[in-house]
Design goal:
2 copies of one chain form a homodimer.
Chain A (H helix, E strand, L loop, with lengths): L5 H15 L7 H8 L3 H13 L3 E4 L5 E4 L8 H9 L23 H4 L4 H18 L3 H11 L2 H21 L6
Antiparallel strand pairs in A: 1-2
Helix pairs in contact in A: 1-4, 1-7, 2-3
The structure holds a DNA duplex.
DNA sequence: CTAACTAGGATAAGATCGGTCTGCGTTTTA
DNA sequence: TAAAACGCAGACCGATCTTATCCTAGTTAG
């Protein structure tokens, strides 16, 4: 029917990590490596989220991204629109006005208002958008928190810690 | 967000003409010329509608397409699926299982069931599909019938008639 | 100063989309 | 009986989108 890009999927999963990170910024590279995503690709997604006011960036050495709002105030619709750029589901070509019997100019009764076909698509689009707007980051994050064992969050903190220390103590690339 | 192809738009507008044609077959070429659509392109859309059981084809010289079911039993969802081929809105890459701290094998708690992100998208997709399923060809056709003046349908019949007679009496191409 | 960050542009492979053209089989009709 | 009008299938083409990768420039902590 239509396709939602993987950029959206990557973006949402990253934001979910930021929910659990409690205000501390995470770099796009760390988020990518943590999830097995292409770092350079992810680096192109975050600026879009920042422009939309979903995350806040801090530049410089220990910089990264953090959520700009509370998770419950970030809907899936916000994210999708930020990343994919609010394109309409259907863009009407105004076929109704092209009827051959009209000749050059279509009469007003044929072209006024919204095309019936278009209207049906707008309704469907609205239904989808309403559903996305009703789902927040917080909703999905708490669902995840329920299935993940407490141990897991410790492991993740450790993984992040290793990265950090590896960078500050060794002053170089990690061993191959 | 996502995009519905113009093939769907063309297809639906053609089907609406078939609603008004009351069982008599119309050729894809006539439907294209009547609406200012590329005939060769439209010719690629109709076989899909036929395979889906939405229209019935009659081959040969005075052949064409007619609706295979009643307009009220043809939903927009049927048409979209027939033409675009029921692709999912979102195809989950299972990012949740790729977490670096899992190492090679992700634990079962992380990969069982439907991913929370995926679930949200499925819900949105269902909302859209439900909306499309709730709209039938008949709904839109009657809406059109209300705004079109009676005169119009006469003009269209005449236009079709001219095409037919032009083809049968002159045994050749129409004058340039 | 340097390494770790973000921001943004250039580029490229692959897929999809809108559209054209050709060739083939079927059916009516002159 | 042959031409013309039809449907069907596939090859092709250019434009655009998607998913990357790489490179440069600017910013900041240690």
């Amino acid at each position: 029917m239509a396709h939602m890009t993987v950029s959206v999927e990557y973006g949402i999963h990253c934001l979910l990590w930021l929910v659990g990170n409690d205000g501390a910024p995470m770099s796009s590279r760390d988020l990518a490596d943590l999830q097995g995503i292409s770092p350079s690709f992810l680096a192109k997604i975050f600026p879009k989220l920042e422009k939309a006011g979903i995350v806040a960036a801090s530049e410089g050495v220990r910089g990264g991204y953090r959520l700009a709002r509370e998770p419950k105030d970030i809907s899936f619709l916000d994210i999708v629109d930020a990343i994919e750029g609010r394109k309409p589901l259907f863009d009407c070509q105004e076929v109704r006005g092209r009827c051959a019997v009209f000749g050059d100019a279509a009469p007003r009764w044929a072209t006024s208002g919204v095309c019936g076909v278009h209207a049906a698509m707008l309704k469907a689009e609205k239904a989808m958008r309403d559903s996305l707007a009703a789902t927040s980051l917080a909703d999905v994050a708490t669902g995840f928190g329920k299935v993940a064992p407490a141990e897991f969050f410790g492991d993740v903190s450790e993984w992040i810690g290793e990265r950090m220390s590896g960078r500050t103590t060794r002053t170089g690339k990690p061993p191959p």
